[in-house]
UniProtKB/TrEMBL annotation:
Regions that span the bilayer: none
Family annotation (PROSITE patterns): RUN
Source organism superkingdom: Eukaryota
Protein name, entry field: RUN domain-containing protein
Domain RUN: 38-150
InterPro entries noted in UniProt: Run_dom (IPR004012), Run_dom_sf (IPR037213)
Pfam name, any one: RUN
Amino acid sequence: MADARTEEIGKSVTCSSLLMGLKSTVEGLLANQSINVWNIYGGLNRVCKHVEDILLHRIKLQEEKADDNQVSYWKFIQELKWLNPTLGPKIELIIRCNESKQDRCLHWLRDSLNDHTLSSQLHTLVCNKQHLYQHYYDPNQPLKMLIVAI
């Protein structure tokens, strides 16, 4: 499922359209002026899907295969524990859940959105150019723009 979606994203979707999808979803959620936007029409799931699509865009496929041979960005995220050691316990907790790499990615993404820490964690990941180029082809496109968007 994610593998087919990743191939589709890599071939037909541009960086700007990925970001516009996230932007329109967030604007729609905020337009309701609700205290808890995650409960509006599956808001958390919709935002997670858009962010996941952005994180999967231009990822180096040969290195990022998940347990079930689907594409995953877990290796990219897992290195947060070395790039920012204060996040080590959070990453280790996710690892101990014995989930697939794909589920770990979603677990991290949901927790980060709920804790309002996604932007700072992505900033840590994106600012280390060596780390970024290790996991992404032409990483200057969607990920850095995502930091600005968030």
